[in-house]
Design goal:
Blueprint lengths: L1 E5 L2 H5 L2 H6 L3 E4 L5 E8 L4 E10 L3 H15 L1 H17 L4 H25 L4
Helix pairs in contact: 3-4, 3-5, 4-5
Length: 124
C-alpha cells in the first residue's frame, strides 16, 4: 500500500489514461477524501499494489503517516496487525470486502493509539 499526497485530484484524474498505459488502474473515488489506483494481475483478480491518493496535509494524509510511523515504532502493534491480516487472508481468500472489513476495527484502534503516541511520545 502506498499513500500519495496531492494538492489537486483533478490533475491526477486527468492523467488516468497515462497511468493505465503503465498498468496503474483507477478503481474508484468512493472513499471520502481518497482516490484509489491499483496494479496487479487482473485476469486472476490479484492486486499487488494499492495506491491511495489523498490531499496532502488532510486528515487522511496524517492518518497514513501516523499509522506507518506507529507500526514502525511499535513492534507489538505491527505484529498484531500482521497476524490479523494473515488470519483474514486465510479466512477470506476470495472475499476482499470481508478481508477489508475484518481489518477495520483494529485499524481504527491502532489509529487512535497512533494519534495518542504522536501527541505524547508514549507507546501503548
Amino acid at each position: 500500500m502506498t499513500a500519495v499526497g496531492v494538492d489537486n485530484y483533478e490533475a491526477v484524474l486527468a492523467k488516468k489514461h497515462k497511468l493505465q498505459a503503465e498498468n496503474i488502474i483507477f478503481r474508484f473515488d468512493e472513499r471520502p477524501g481518497q482516490l484509489l489506483f491499483v496494479m496487479g494481475d487482473f485476469k486472476n483478480d490479484t492486486r499487488t499494489h494499492h495506491i491511495h491518493v489523498v490531499r496532502y496535509g488532510s486528515t487522511e494524509w496524517e492518518n497514513y503517516l501516523n499509522f506507518r510511523d506507529y507500526l514502525n515504532a511499535n513492534t507489538a502493534a505491527a505484529e498484531r496487525y500482521a497476524a490479523l491480516k494473515i488470519t483474514l487472508a486465510e479466512q477470506y481468500p476470495n472475499d476482499r470486502i470481508a478481508y477489508t472489513e475484518g481489518k477495520s476495527g483494529l485499524i481504527n484502534a491502532l489509529l487512535d493509539e497512533a494519534r495518542r503516541w504522536r501527541e505524547t511520545g508514549i507507546l501503548s
